[in-house]
Write a structure and sequence with these properties.
The complex is a heterotrimer.
Chain A: H1 2-10, H2 12-31, E1 46-47, E2 57-58, H3 61-92, H4 95-110, H5 113-140, H6 157-181, H7 185-193, H8 198-209, H9 211-227, H10 230-235, H11 253-264, H12 268-295, E3 299-301, E4 307-309
Antiparallel strand pairs in A: 1-2, 3-4
Helix pairs in contact in A: 2-12, 3-4, 3-6, 3-9, 3-11, 4-6, 5-6, 6-9, 7-8, 9-12, 11-12
Chain B: H1 3-7, E1 11-22, E2 25-36, E3 40-44, H2 51-57, E4 68-76, E5 79-80, H3 88-94, E6 95-98, H4 109-119, H5 124-137, H6 141-144, H7 157-170, E7 175-179, H8 187-200, E8 205-209, H9 213-219, E9 222-227, E10 230-236, H10 237-242, H11 247-257
Parallel strand pairs in B: 3-8, 3-9, 6-7, 7-8
Antiparallel strand pairs in B: 1-2, 1-4, 4-5, 9-10
Helix pairs in contact in B: 4-5, 4-7, 5-7, 7-8
Chain C: H1 3-6, H2 13-28, H3 33-51, H4 57-61, E1 64-65, E2 68-69, H5 72-103, H6 106-120, H7 124-138, H8 145-169, H9 173-181, H10 186-215, H11 218-221, H12 241-248, H13 257-295
Antiparallel strand pairs in C: 1-2
Helix pairs in contact in C: 3-13, 5-8, 5-10, 5-12, 6-8, 7-8, 8-10, 9-10, 10-13, 12-13
The chains are: A mainly alpha, B alpha/beta, C mainly alpha.
Chain lengths: 314, 258, 296
């Protein structure tokens, strides 16, 4: 009896993460006051109208667009870079070199968000404003979406993409590296033993084998990019409008949440709208992470010693 | 037979004073051994005797393990495979390998066998011919001919291992190296693979590393006995089994049988 | 059989192309590390350049006074927030990790791990909103040291939890069987056998959580609020280093003292984070060696 009680009590800490998830959802739902903004919630017009709250309109689409543009581009760049880094670490570099270089990628994950922000805002932004963005417009301006305008200070979507890329590279690199390391050595050697070059084995054996892990990198990297708050807020310009081009200033969902709560303290419908925006952000990251975690691969060794990927064959 | 082939008096593969070092430790000690054409050479010995290292040094797989150093020569049709101008990729093309555990790739049965051929961008009809031929020679054709598009991972362990043999055969190597290919299989699957090997030894050079002395007796023409990194004795299998010249060999064989 | 086919020196155009692709990839791919290392160096260089010329003992010992002054208050605030939130997260995380690795059924362990990972994926500002609405408003704690610390502890909990779980789950099975076989109870086994083995990895999780907690801003902005002075009680608002950067980084005078203070705070954060990362790496090395020893 006492033992059963102890066991039950012992399980409480293990259940707390689930409890916190539930508490977060319930609190946010309660915080919306169940106010219904109707279809206009998914519109592009966001005007809290602090002077006359009854005229307020809360459409979250500008934030959604800003978040998606920056996250998708950052994800694409981060995946490319991560694949190159992971292949170098696992296959191409001598082990000792890998041991020296790999920690730099982890260090990137340790740098605080505000530090990325202040570096981006003061040090990198001028480079974008004076050099990078004008150069893009000059040579690639004929491509729709890259025609300008150039923001003189350099803040805006391109800078946000750069900062976001650096911030999610550690996440995607770790996942891709681990999925490549999970390829059985004998499988990798079999490819080489057939007279394939290192790269041919990587492309035709290792990467296909690690596919599930790659998908987890795509999804979890995206989830991280979507939720990144402070650094992006500091470098994207925070303009509540649809960006005119990929070089324009923009605003993201987490950015709006972190930047506007203090203006909403005393305006109930504004507070409700932000809580609803928080729920939308939570749902997006929840779904993406849920899917991503499912993809983290599991390889089964059969009693015969033969390999099989779960779900393949009888 | 090509010109370099003649120079070796029928030996397709021959080692001369072959040593492998792991740092200060010598794990293979000056092995001189020949693998003649159209014969199956079995390499036996207790675990840790260096037989797998020996095998892996015959197609330069040994280079993939960091910190191993190779000394001496390995000649394939007279050419030193460790020569600076020689490309290990081509060595492995001519000298195929099958591993302890089945190592099928995560793709269809057909694509597994076609793997090596695709690297050369061979025309599809040629690829198909080679795939069918290889599956037949590996003794797997009848079992899989109707579902070549199935994932190879759905095959049983024994079938997977024969698929690995077919995959190695598809690029028509001169030599096939096998590293304890039946150690993870049940007796029935082992028997099938031994049958395959008995047919293959008529047409190519095979080096088989095995911890199973009886298997060496059943399938090999010649047998080499390794002990503590050294080649103790080599000869026609029947001679070696009946009249081992070295007491070490005798001890090992009687220990195994008696 | 002909001589060219038996030759081991590749001459065909197709073969040379295959080799060339492979060789150049092997040479070029490692250079992508520059894309990681150069931004890091640039960051360290410029933040040091903007922070150090005016850095003095007073920076560490005086409180901010509106638009100038030192960082004493936020440094103490950061330390207090970190101490409280790490204690809470470590208590829950280590207990939960031990339960998951040692006592939970396989199915429950899988569920717990999954939800822990999902909690780790919740954006920091969403956790901050939870803290603001639930703790500050509904519980009536107000923006305070305790509200901020509890909110932050929820955010960093998954890192301690996962490390502790992994640490106890990786203790070799035979060690456990030997210990239980000799008649020790589970609790004795955990305390005398598993804990010493798992400790470095557990500590690693705690340090990782500290590094992340120290660098977070969004969970604290509306729960801890701000204070120029060290807090005098759990229910007082508190200043902290990331918050100082957030408040001061875009003040209008670009080389004004506020911005310099922000850079100084960034410099301190960066140094501490790098030191914590080094500690994690060293402890990780010790742990890996110890575990390898046990498995052989």
């Amino acid at each position: 009896m006492l033992r059963r009680l102890a066991r039950w009590a012992g399980s409480i800490p293990a259940l707390l993460p689930l409890g916190f998830l539930a508490a977060i959802v319930l609190t946010l739902v309660f915080a919306t006051g169940l106010e219904n903004f109707g279809l206009s919630f998914f519109g592009t017009d966001w005007n809290p109208s602090t002077g006359d709250p009854s005229k307020a309109v809360f459409g979250i689409m500008t934030f959604v667009v800003g978040t998606l543009i920056t996250s998708v581009f950052a994800l694409v760049f981060a995946l490319g870079l991560s694949l190159a880094l992971a292949l170098s670490i696992v296959f191409y570099l001598p082990p000792r070199m890998s041991q020296v270089l790999a920690p730099f990628v982890d260090l990137l994950a340790g740098i605080p968000s505000v530090v990325y922000g202040i570096w981006g805002f003061w040090i990198v932004a001028p480079v974008f404003g004076e050099t990078i963005n004008p150069t893009i417009v000059r040579y690639l301006g004929w491509i729709p979406g890259l025609q300008g305008p150039v923001i003189a200070s350099g803040v805006g979507i391109p800078l946000a993409i750069l900062i976001l890329t650096l911030m999610i590279v550690p996440v995607t690199t770790t996942l891709i590296r681990d999925s490549l390391r999970a390829v059985p050595q004998a499988l990798d050697e079999s490819g080489l033993a057939l007279g394939a070059t290192r790269w041919e084995v990587i492309r035709r054996v290792d990467i296909p084998y690690a596919k599930r892990g790659m998908w987890s990198a795509v999804l979890l990297g995206f989830g991280r990019a979507v939720g990144e708050t402070v650094a992006v807020f500091m470098v994207i310009g925070d303009a509540t409008k649809l960006p005119a081009s990929l070089l324009d200033v923009s605003y993201t969902m987490p950015g709006a949440l972190v930047g506007q709560l203090d203006s909403a303290f005393i305006q109930p419908n504004y507070l409700h709208a932000l809580a609803e925006l928080a729920i939308v952000l939570f749902l997006i990251t929840f779904v993406v992470n849920f899917a991503g975690r499912r993809f983290v691969s599991r390889i089964v060794v059969r009693p015969t010693g033969a390999l099989s990927v779960r779900g393949a064959g009888p | 037979m090509s010109v370099p082939g003649e120079k070796t008096n029928g030996s397709v593969l021959a080692t001369q004073d072959l040593s492998v070092w792991a740092g200060d430790k010598q794990i293979l000690k000056s092995v001189t051994l020949e693998a003649p054409d159209r014969t199956l050479l079995a390499v036996i010995g207790p675990s840790g005797c260096g037989k797998t290292t020996f095998l892996r040094s015959l197609n330069r797989m040994v280079e993939l393990s960091h910190g191993l150093r190779v000394d001496g020569t390995v000649r394939y049709l007279g050419q030193d495979i460790y020569d600076a101008r020689v490309d290990p990729v081509l060595v492995r093309r001519r000298i195929g390998m099958v591993f302890q555990r089945p190592t099928v790739f995560p793709m269809s049965i057909y694509e597994n066998v076609a793997f090596g051929l695709r690297l050369d961008r061979k025309p599809e009809d040629e690829v198909e011919k080679s795939v069918v031929g290889a599956l037949q020679r590996a003794g797997l054709w009848d079992e899989v001919k109707d579902d070549l598009d199935r994932p190879a991972l759905s095959l049983s362990g024994g079938q997977q291992q024969r698929l690995c043999i077919a995959r190695a055969l598809a690029v028509s190597p001169r030599v096939l190296l096998l590293d304890e290919p039946t150690s993870s299989l049940d007796p029935a699957a082992t028997q099938k693979i031994e049958g395959t090997l008995q047919e293959l030894r008529e047409e190519m050079t095979i080096v088989l590393v095995t911890h199973n002395v009886a298997q060496a007796g059943r399938v090999s023409d010649r047998t080499a006995y390794f002990y503590q990194g050294r080649l103790v004795e080599v000869g026609p299998t029947a001679d070696l089994f009946e009249n081992p010249k070295d007491p070490l060999t005798e001890e090992y064989l009687t220990g195994r049988f008696g | 059989m002909n001589a060219t086919e038996d030759s081991l020196v590749g001459t065909s155009a197709r073969f040379r192309r295959r080799r060339r692709v492979d060789r150049w990839l092997g040479r070029l791919l490692p250079f992508t590390f520059l894309l990681v290392i150069l931004p890091l160096l640039d960051m360290v260089y410029w933040i040091a350049t903007r922070a150090l010329p005016t850095f003095s003992w007073a920076t560490l010992t005086t409180n901010p006074s509106g638009t100038s002054g030192g960082l004493y208050g936020p440094i103490v605030g950061s330390a207090e927030i970190l101490a409280i939130s790490t204690t809470i997260a470590a208590a829950i995380g280590i207990a939960g990790g031990i339960y998951t690795a040692e006592f939970a059924s396989e199915r429950m362990a899988a569920t717990v791990r999954f939800t822990t990972n999902l909690l780790a994926g919740v954006p920091s500002i969403v956790v901050g909103y939870f803290g603001y609405f639930a703790l500050v408003l509904y519980f009536g704690w107000g923006a305070s040291l305790i509200a901020g610390s509890v909110t932050l502890s929820i955010f960093i909990l998954p890192y301690v939890f996962r490390s502790a779980d992994l640490a106890f789950a990786s203790v070799p099975k035979d060690l456990r069987e030997a210990s239980l076989g000799m008649g020790s109870t589970r609790v004795q086994y955990i305390r005398r056998v598993a804990f010493p083995v798992a400790l470095p990895q557990v500590l690693n999780g705690v340090f990782l959580a500290m590094a992340i907690g120290l660098g977070e801003t969004a969970p604290l902005l509306y729960t801890a609020f701000w204070n120029n002075f060290p807090p005098t009680g759990l229910n007082q608002p508190v200043g902290y280093l990331t918050g100082l950067i957030w408040n001061y980084y875009d003040e209008p005078l670009s080389f004004g003292t506020e911005v310099t203070m922000a850079f100084q705070a960034a410099f301190i954060l960066m140094v501490v984070v790098i030191v914590l990362n080094l500690a994690i790496r060293i402890i990780g090395g010790i742990y890996a060696r110890r575990l390898r020893g046990l498995y052989h």
